Amino acid sequence: MKEIKTKDAGKGARFVNKSSELSSRMKRGLIRAKDNVKNLADDGQVTPEEYAEDKIKYASEDAAGEVAHDSKETVKKTYDGSKRLVQQIKQKRQSGETIKQTEKSTGKQNFKTMKRNIKTAGSSTGKTVKTSEATARTTVKTTQKAAKTAEQTAKAAKKAAEASAKAAKRSAEAAKAAAKAAAQAAKVTAKAVVAAAKAIASGVKALIAAIAEGGWVAVVAIIVILLIVVVALIVGSGFGIFYSMEDSGSGMTMRDAISAINTEYEETIANLKNSTSYDKLEMYGGRARWPDVLSVYSVKTTSDTVEGQEVATMDEDKFEILREVFWDMHVISSRTQEKTETEIIETEDEQGNIIETTQEVTVTYLYIIVQHKTPEEMAAAYSFNSDQIQQLAELTDPKNNRLWNNVLYGFSTGNDQIVEVAKSQLGNEGGDIYWMWYGFNYHPAWCAIFVSWCANECGFIEEGVIPMFAGCDNGVAWFRERDEWKDRDYIPNPGDIIFFDWEYDGYTDTADHVGIVERVDGDTVYTIEGNSGDAVREKHYTIGQRNILGYGTPDY
């Protein structure tokens, strides 16, 4: 008997499944289109963050759908196969002869075994279906969880991007603020600060571009701009005076200006002497320290709200400001007074005896008084505000002595300091500035006073490196007590203090004169001495010669 053929229902099932799948995909497509429309309606465009979120969401849904679909297909194929087997068995049972022949040849036991196999197959198929469905559900849940995690990650990335954008914006604003501050500083600066301002402007543009690109160049640019701004602000402030040593192209340096004003000061005193007839001179007071004068000048010049200027350079206009400040700080007055004094007159009689007689004489005294204001008094005179007063206090602080030495004499450290100070005084006559500083109101022997004045300008008296002394023997004793004394055969160093014992009094081994060692060339020592013919002069001697008493060797 021909085997009965049955219609394959799988094709119809596959058609239905494809139709269902197509319907599902169309539904998902409509949902996506709706989401895109919604996103576009929010702000007119789909942002990169929204696009990323949707991409992850839809990819997850597609993955879940594909897994569920494949699992259902596997289960259905297994089930359909089992069903076809059962149908074939039923068809064979319906053909009587075939079924009976089969029962006879194989026995009832085989038939029961076949039924159990069919039942087991059906049960296994059912279990497989259930297991596949459970696996599909688990896969869907896992995929949904992954999609949710991805969505959260996208949101976090979005927030991080927004934070980065805000940080970049703040950096750009800070850069603009720095440029604005630098531009303000440029209003009170000359060539140095103008150049700095140009560098700042260029740097800001590069910084903003670098920040926009997000490159590492932005970090370097920020550091460079901050350094430029700091330097510009320092130069543009009163502290720019510490950078005023060099000629910036005007043909005048700070030391030139100071020298010119010192000359004017000395000429003023000389004119008072020359314009008056007198027998004796007494002077009181003294000139202000240049660091004090320059500190007042710096604050006044840089903080002028109308015509503020930097003080790192010197020109004719700023020279006039400095000159005005100097004379605002000083008052020089003079007067004359006649006094009747008893004068002792010595005469020699015919036998060679000294006879002393007295007589009343009229003596004309010239008094010259130099008064100077302190920085605090000048702050009051110029109506400085609290910020200006604070800046003035910082500039005049003793901790800046080394910086002031660099401005005034071109050095900051080492034993060459006192040599440079002494050299700057070459040619000074009379020594008024030195002995008036010491406190004398008359013209004394001032060689030791000159050494003390130079040491004080360097801060060495305050540091205990060199003593303040007016008598040469006192200086010798000070160095010997500290084991800082060398005999005449010693080869000195620049900055050593040289003491002399003149022959005119018979070499008493006591000090008659003192100076500062400038340098040694071969066996010759060159010195700078105050009160050498009542002036500051350069001299030289042979090392070891008899009129050299010895050397004080300061511990610089």
Task: Provide keyphrases for this structure.
six-stranded antiparallel beta sheet; three-stranded mixed beta sheet; endopeptidase fold (from Nostoc punctiforme); disordered N terminus; 16 helices
Describe the structure.
This protein has 556 residues and is of the alpha+beta class. Among the domains are: 10-163; 414-556, endopeptidase domain like (from Nostoc punctiforme) (endopeptidase fold (from Nostoc punctiforme), Alpha-Beta Complex). Helix content is 59%, strand content 14%. It has 16 helices and nine strands. A six-stranded antiparallel sheet has the order 4-9-5-6-7-8, covered by helices on one side. It has a three-stranded mixed sheet with strand order 1-3-2, with helices on both faces. Helix 2 (48-94) runs antiparallel to helix 3 and helix 3 (96-186) runs parallel beside helix 5.
What general form does the structure show? elongated
Number of helices: 16
Biggest sheet overview: 6 strands, antiparallel
- Residues in helices, as a percent range: 55-70%
Beta-strand portion reads 5-15%
Strands of the largest sheet, in order across it? 4-9-5-6-7-8
N-to-C order of helices and strands: HHHHHHEHHEEHHHHHHHHEEEEEE
- Enumerate the spans where pLDDT stays under 50 for 5 or more consecutive residues: 1-16, 39-46, 177-199, 225-233
